[in-house]
Design brief:
Elements lengths: L3 E3 L3 E5 L10 E7 L8 E6 L2 E8 L4 E8 L4 E10 L3 E8 L20 E3 L22 E2 L38 H9 L7 H15 L1
Parallel strand pairs: 1-6, 2-9
Antiparallel strand pairs: 2-3, 3-8, 4-5, 5-6, 7-8, 7-10
């Protein structure tokens, strides 16, 4: 059977800070369902990334090459692999209060890249946003198992990351179960004013009978 190759969907959001490196990063989620850790390779560099993943069950190979708008700090970036996607927390190299105007260096719209509205926060509302839990993310520093030769300087080759050594499973607040959200909607109380309108309708019905 033939194998098809396609560019995976990529969701992104960001945070920024002029003083705190921990709050100056890019969220990146590469949607690659049914791709086992053994079939993933991520080459992350300051200027961009190259990703390849193969799904045996879907007979599909995912390939992505992206050049970032600005540089990232690879050593202080993090990655997490789940059964549905590869999640990245990319540390921006330059501390700035302003957001990047876009993710990619080239200012053109690409079909596979979308805003991650679940994680997006407006630039002026960052301080009020809840802190994210990155406890399941693995660091890129210190020669993580399976990362290959780190090399020296900004152009180090990070080769094929061994995702099987990283924490798996869905992260709290990073997707969750959509069915639970639907159930919550069903239990929503009536909108303000609805009960009052229902009461008036009952009174009119009683008067006319």
């Amino acid at each position: 059977m033939s194998t098809t190759q396609q560019t995976p969907e990529v969701l992104w959001a960001q945070r920024s800070s002029a003083t705190d490196p921990e709050k100056n990063f890019i969220y990146l989620t590469i949607s690659v369902p049914d791709v086992p850790a053994s079939n993933l390779k991520l080459d992350l560099k300051p200027q961009g990334l190259t990703f390849t993943g193969h799904s045996d069950s879907l007979k599909r190979t995912y390939h992505l090459e992206a050049e970032f708008y600005d540089e990232i700090d690879v050593a202080n970036s993090q990655v997490n692999h789940t059964g549905k996607n590869v999640e990245l927390k990319l540390r921006k190299k330059e501390l700035k209060a302003e957001y990047w105007p876009r993710l990619l260096k080239e200012a053109k719209k690409v079909h596979y890249l979308k805003t991650d509205f679940d994680k997006w926060v407006d630039e002026d509302e960052q301080n009020e946003a809840a802190e994210e839990d990155f406890s399941q993310f693995g660091g890129m520093e210190g020669g993580m198992p399976g990362m290959g030769g780190m090399g020296g300087g900004a152009g180090g080759d990070f080769g094929g990351i061994d995702f099987s050594k990283l924490g798996g499973g869905a992260m709290p607040g990073m997707g969750g179960d959509e069915e639970e959200d639907d159930e919550d909607d069903e239990d929503m109380p009536p909108l303000e004013g609805e009960e009052e309108e229902e009461g008036k309708a009952e009174e009119k019905k009683a008067e006319s009978s």
